[in-house]
Amino acid sequence: MFEARPDKNAFLVKSYETKELISKYKKQLNYDISRFVDGLSEIHLYEDKYTGYQFYYPMDIFGDSAFYEHLQKFDWYYMPWKWEHEYLLNQLDVKDKILEVGAGGLGFIQKISALNVDCIGLELNEKSVDKAKQLGLDVRNESIQAFAAANTECFDVVCSFQVLEHITDVHSFLASKIKCLKKGGRLVICVPNNDSFIKYDEGGILNFPPHHAGRWNRQSLNSIASCFNLQIADVVYEPLQEYHSTWYVRSTSRRLKNNKLINRISKIISIDKIINAYVKRNQSRIRGHSIMFIYKKE
Length: 298
Known about the structure:
Blueprint: E1 10-17, H1 18-29, E2 42-48, E3 54-57, H2 65-71, H3 83-89, E4 97-101, H4 107-114, E5 118-122, H5 126-134, E6 139-140, H6 144-149, E7 155-161, H7 170-180, E8 181-192, E9 214-215, H8 218-228, E10 230-239, H9 245-256, H10 260-265, H11 271-282, E11 287-297
Parallel strand pairs: 4-5, 4-7, 5-6, 7-8
Antiparallel strand pairs: 1-2, 2-3, 3-9, 8-11, 10-11
Helix pairs in contact: 9-11
């Protein structure tokens, strides 16, 4: 399970022309991804028929250090403190030993380390690791697979925020995280929810390679529990955040205008203004960008 490959257990969802992806990355993020898709006219999105996990093929299209260093120039890319950090912080005990896999933003590990919670971070971005050292944080330039070999059942909580969607070797990644957990420990995963409003524009250009390797939703996250013999302790939907409200309005408006009647009405009344007013009144009740699963190791 979660061995992403286009075999008899997966079906083709959609194909995308690489020239379109190159154009969108260049236009929206001023970055040329040509070298990642050299020789390819298309990439393909498949879905595993047992887990519901959707993955891109070929599977070797993923960003390198230069790609991520470019994205870090945008202040929104590594936000130091987000909804998911605050939620998990409130679930922790000061005695918990924490492992954060993909700690590049440093915000979470910095905050909980300041609260004297024992935390180790793993990160493959060398610049982030160097910055962590300057801040006195225990962040190591090591893969979870290598780390797990010497750290079996050492942690009360193993967490990753907005990381799993970047991973191509999903089974090995998850198995290694679980290996690090003590019995009764919690595995915490927060990812973009591809059943949320982001689905109306397929999550935007960053939901495609070389940034994302796959797409997750509640169904596929549910299947992690059965595949790895875990209990689901909690499922939490992110409330719509202020910094995503424009995206929500734009994508919802575009979807509604696909209806011929609403499209005609929109020429008389601003649909965007109506949606904006709705968001202002109901923002805390609208499901936002991400979903968090907390699993318990039996």
